[in-house]
Design brief:
The protein is α/β, with parallel strands linked by helices and about 425 residues long. It has 17 helices and eight strands. The protein folds into three domains: about 110 residues, no CATH class; about 210 residues, P-loop containing nucleotide triphosphate hydrolases (Rossmann fold, 3-Layer(aba) Sandwich); about 70 residues, Arc Repressor Mutant, subunit A (Orthogonal Bundle), CATH 1.10.10.10. One of its GO terms (molecular function) is metal ion binding.
């Protein structure tokens, strides 16, 4: 395969070098007192919404560049899994990886897993999109049609087809093939589908990337099938990679399915930003709009956000909206912090809290009173005056809802940073 080098992070690195070369020197000293226009607010606190400056993730971006380059050179490469708490930017990183693959003219598709849904139909739709991206460049249309026939056969064995019908039919205008990816056994079918999709990519000397968000919610039987299919690809060296993102316990979900899963994936754990990266996430977008922060304002913003990317954007956005002029000062941060905290309490924390039943809320309040680190389930039971076995339904439901996770055997933790602090401020 012919390598195509696309250094997606080079511009960001160049800007950061310039930033550090002039650290402590205002970029626009002549216009520091200009008004701060809310319309030009660069910060973007949203679910999966890319911030204007993707700070602190160079290592992960470089790791994915290596995956892309190795596949381009025809070398075997593991699929990749990104894990972390909610609000650290997993979905943003996944979308950035997808853009990087598209820049290399790969076929790409993305799904969001759900605990009550087989991945057969979403994977079929995602690979259909990936092949459609590749089809115009393929010199043998019959080869594409052959794969689409296999894809349609795979999709039509979806167990979630409407009651009273034997099949679910995707929008593929070719007859379904027989005898390939249509056994009804997802592990067999997914493996055959991945191998055939990789064959199409090989013809074009490119790759295919399937991105799976909320990967911890893939049903257990489907996780086993996914691992088996990736295992086959790793042995054949097919140019198809799966890139997943999920909560911190995702590696244990995968290893519980297949003992060899720890060798199938390249794992990248992402966490809150260090001080340098958090400052970059605020300063560089502001300087694009000719706005500065004072040093004590940055100190206060870091203390409030604790380096979590979503919080950095949330506090930065409100501070910008309420600041009358540049530079944004400590007083501006003090005035804006209560409003930012209220928005987080309603939209980020409160929306999750409302999903819990009264019994589940009691369980979480008990966790919060014990501490913010992973806590023993036995201590939660003691705090509630209950036997641990009687609390299993509430704990399991909270895990299924994505509000807590099992950090390791006997320990549980919140999936949302600062959730314990939020709960301690709520009436019981």
């Amino acid at each position: 395969m012919c390598p195509v080098t696309v250094l997606a992070t080079a511009p960001a690195r160049t800007r950061r070098s310039a930033f550090f070369a002039n650290l402590g020197q205002p970029l626009y000293p002549a216009i520091e007192s200009q008004s701060v226009d809310p319309v030009r607010n660069p910060y973007a606190p949203g679910a999966g919404q890319r911030p204007p400056e993707l700070a602190g993730r160079d290592r992960e971006l470089q790791q994915f560049e290596v995956v892309l380059e190795r596949v381009a050179r025809g070398r075997p490469e593991r699929s990749m899994v990104v894990t972390g708490l909610r609000g650290v930017g997993k979905t943003v990183l996944l979308n950035t990886f997808k853009s990087m693959a598209m820049q290399r003219l790969w076929g790409t598709g993305k799904i969001e897993a759900r605990p009550d849904q087989s991945i057969r139909r979403p994977v079929a739709a995602a690979l259909h999109m990936a092949i459609r991206e590749l089809a115009p460049r393929h010199r043998a249309p019959e080869r594409i049609e052959e794969f689409l026939g296999v894809l349609k056969a795979f999709a039509m064995r979806d167990p979630g087809a409407a009651k009273g019908t034997s099949h679910w039919s995707p929008g593929i205008e070719v007859p379904a093939s027989r005898g390939r990816a249509d056994s009804g056994d997802l592990e067999i079918d997914l493996t055959e589908l991945f191998v055939d999709a990789a064959g199409v990519a090989t013809d074009l000397a490119v790759g295919i990337a399937l991105f799976i968000d909320e990967m911890q919610d893939v049903p257990p039987a489907d996780v086993s099938a996914l691992c088996a299919a990736c295992h086959e690809l790793s042995q054949t060296g097919g140019p198809l990679v799966v890139v997943g993102a999920g909560l911190p316990h995702l590696p244990s979900v995968l290893s519980a399915s297949k003992s060899y899963s720890e060798r199938l994936f390249r794992y990248a754990r992402i966490d809150k930003l260090d001080r340098e990266a958090a400052d970059l996430a605020l300063i560089l977008p502001a300087r694009e709009e000719q706005v500065e922060f004072t040093q004590d304002a940055l100190d206060a913003l870091y203390d409030a956000a604790d380096g979590y990317p979503y919080f950095v954007q949330a506090y930065g956005k409100v501070a910008w909206d309420l600041a009358p002029r540049s530079p944004i000062t400590l007083d501006d941060v003090k005035v804006s912090a209560p409003e930012a905290e209220q928005e987080l309490a309603v939209g980020f924390f409160g929306s999750r809290y409302e999903r819990a039943t009264p019994a589940e809320r009691d369980y979480m309040h008990a966790m919060a009173q014990i501490g913010d680190e992973p806590v023993p389930t036995s201590e939660v039971a003691d705090a509630l005056g209950r036997k641990p076995s009687s609390l299993s339904p509430a704990r399991d439901s909270l895990i299924k809802k994505g509000l807590i996770y099992s950090a390791e055997r006997g320990l549980i933790a919140f999936t949302v940073p600062h959730f314990g602090r939020f709960l301690r401020a709520q009436p019981i």
